[in-house]
Amino acid sequence: MQRIELHPIIAAMEPSDVRLYYPEGDQKTFWSYVLESPLYCDELAEIRREGERLNDVPIPELTYELFSSFARTGSRLEYERVYFERRRILNTAVLLALLEPGREKHLTAVCEIVWSICNEYTWCLPAHLGDTGITETIDLFSAETGFALSEINCLLGERLPALLRARIKAEIDKRLFVPYLTCGPYHWETSTHNWSAVCSGSIGSAALLLMEDKETLTEILYKVQGSMEYYLQGFGEDGACLEGLGYWNYGFGYFVYYADLLRQKSRGQLDWFRRDKVGSIAAFQQKCFLGGQLVANFSDSLESGHVFLGLSHYLASAYPEVEVPPLSLRAAYTEDHCSQWAPALRNLIWRKPEEGQRDWGSASYYLPDAQWLLSRHSGTDGGFGFAAKGGNNDEPHNHNDLGGFILQGEGTVYISELGSGEYTSGYFGTERYSYDCNGSQGHSVPIIDGQYQVAGAEAYAEVQEAKAGDGSDVLELDLTRAYRVGSLEGLTRRFKWETGVNPPVLAMTDEFRFAEAPAALVERFITFIPPVLEEDTVLLERQGDGDGYEQGQGQADDGQAHGKANRGAAGQGQRGLRISYDIAKLKPEISVHSYNDHFGKMKTWYGLDFYAGKPGKHERYHFEFRFLD
């Protein structure tokens, strides 16, 4: 919509008030309902526990040493732990003030933390400042902070001192509105990933709540409209979020928060939810789960995930194809380590009485734009899941992982993705693919003549066949362009996931064609479980409860620590996965590696490497992955 068409709609907008958040009743009635309803028992207990933890604890300072640590060491965690703890203090104090308006100490805590946040040198993270001046920079978290303070100002209204309300408006104007209109364009304004939605959506939301001048508001919302168009361009018609489920919650969440406020303020005249693609994106979450809390964690994503119930219920109300998620997947109040205000509020105000099913049902999906095959299966032998991907090696939060896959059974992931590592200066720089979680060395893909997959849009997969459903899922990919090995003429990988049998069986076949025989050829599979080499198969075994082994955290014994084989056979009562291969052509070895996960914790992973004896010009390797009965 052109600016001239936007202006009359925006000019007719009424001032913002709490009715934006409680369309079915007033604020006091809603929070009384929350306090009395058994629906919110767990959420209230979590919020109150945080309130008790934070009670009388001084607000932690963002010191110079913390601020400068990223420039000195490249580490982000030290500053961000304190930054996000301050946001947790803010969220908790405000929610308690809404829940218990008669307790003055909650409002006092709100005033102190809001004043302290207004005093911050910058609302941006040091890792996002770059060479841009402090006052000109807008990043994800500065935009989020402005959105949060504008909503808190609206919700608490005259309960806040006039001085504090004036300070909130002045700081948001200085840190967001003025630079947005005078210092851009920013790189994220034309990004096709989460930054465009979070930054522009937060600024647009704050403007809708605070901006009185309709000309300026029109200018801001027109710019936001352009960024949201770019954000949607980052999705195909299949709605897949290439950044993973966590960034779907993040980027698409802020798209929805803004779109909801815009639709309400414009009385339905400006409605992003009418777009067919938005409905497809809304349905991505239910496709991403492979069973229980386990997800297809391609890209910088975590292995297990939970849902924001508020966002999920809102989308299920808007789109009939969106399923209400199982209540067991609810994200706890303290789970969001970034302590975002917007989802924390909406997990309460958007929640519906519907609890959803006990678990996601069996389903298989092929997402043609992303080239993802996703399947979960619930049968008499338990729950199982499989995911595989094509795509290209220039995706948002890219990993060089064409042909990578995940395999889980009854809650144990046997073939894994390492997911997101610790974010450091090198992680998003030239060193990115030296990190195991990002380079193909840390993915279940071949290593050809010692060469890994290359990065870039020219490294892409071509789908030869794709089928989902009817008891058999198939994905066949041409991966030739993923490598820069001069003698490689062709590489195809074919997955066949049979769910018509219990338990399901995965078959994988790789076919290589070379102009000249390679000196070395390795089929690598990634796992957090110490592999056991048997006579003619490999076993990944997971003991029953009580064996003391926590997936992804177990330490290798001395033999495994040196990459030596640990030979044995499956004992009674053990669950696991048996991998069959051509023993005449391949020899398995175990390599042991470690990396820092997203939270800076070192984890051990195993490379199950099948070495080709004497590879020729044409090689075909077949593997079968069977769950133990």
Describe this structure in words.
There is one protein chain. This protein is an alpha+beta fold and 629 residues long. It is built from 16 helices and 21 strands. Strands 11-12-13-14-21-18-17-16 form an eight-stranded antiparallel β-sheet, with no helix packed on it. A hairpin with a 4-residue loop joins strand 11 (462-467) and strand 12 (472-478). Helix 1 (3-11) crosses helix 10, helix 5 (77-99) packs parallel to helix 7 and helix 9 (194-210) packs antiparallel against helix 10. The termini are far apart.
Topology:
Layout: H1 3-11, H2 27-36, H3 41-54, H4 64-73, H5 77-99, H6 104-118, H7 140-156, H8 162-182, H9 194-210, H10 214-233, H11 245-265, H12 276-282, H13 284-288, E1 289-291, E2 294-295, H14 309-318, H15 341-349, E3 363-367, E4 372-379, E5 382-389, E6 392-393, E7 405-409, E8 412-415, E9 446-448, E10 456-460, E11 462-467, E12 472-478, E13 488-498, E14 505-514, E15 521-527, E16 532-533, E17 537-542, H16 558-561, E18 575-580, E19 586-596, E20 602-612, E21 618-627
Antiparallel strand pairs: 1-2, 3-4, 4-5, 5-7, 6-10, 7-8, 9-15, 11-12, 12-13, 13-14, 14-21, 15-20, 16-17, 17-18, 18-21, 19-20
Helix pairs in contact: 1-10, 3-5, 5-6, 5-7, 6-8, 7-8, 7-9, 8-9, 9-10, 9-11
Tell me the Rg in angstroms. Answer: 26 Å
Shape type: globular
Quickly count the helices. 16
What is the typical, i.e. mean, pLDDT?
Answer: 92
**How many angstroms separate the termini?**
59 Å
Number of DSSP E strands: 21
Q: Structural class from helices and strands?
A: alpha+beta
* Biggest β-sheet strands, sense, barrel: 8 strands, antiparallel
Strand content: 15-25%
| Low-pLDDT stretches | 545-573
Q: What multimeric state do the chains show?
A: single chain
- Portion of residues within helices: 25-40%
Which strands sit side by side, in order, in the main sheet?
11-12-13-14-21-18-17-16
